[in-house]
Specification:
By secondary structure, this protein is mainly beta. The chain has one domain. The protein is 0% helix and 36% strand. The chain is built from no helices and 5 strands. The mean pLDDT is 86.
């Protein structure tokens, strides 16, 4: 079963999403749109970070998942 990890840093205003093992991060590439792509040694994207992410005033950040047929 695949696992997705989502981290919200309220102080740093970042939202980080991992769909690969963070330990496999080899390089981070900025897209120029306040998005950073984390890649493994093969260049496969294993996560991303949204910079300057501003959550709503509530204490919780809600995440919804939906699966689609391939």
């Amino acid at each position: 079963m695949a696992q997705v990890k989502v981290y919200y840093d309220r102080e740093g205003n970042t939202l980080t999403v991992w769909f690969g093992d963070p330990a496999n991060e080899y390089i981070a590439e900025e897209t120029g749109e306040e998005i950073v792509l984390m890649k493994d040694r093969e260049g496969k994207v294993i996560g991303f970070e949204k910079l300057n992410f501003a959550a709503q005033a509530t204490d919780a950040v809600r995440v919804a998942f939906e699966t689609v047929a391939a």
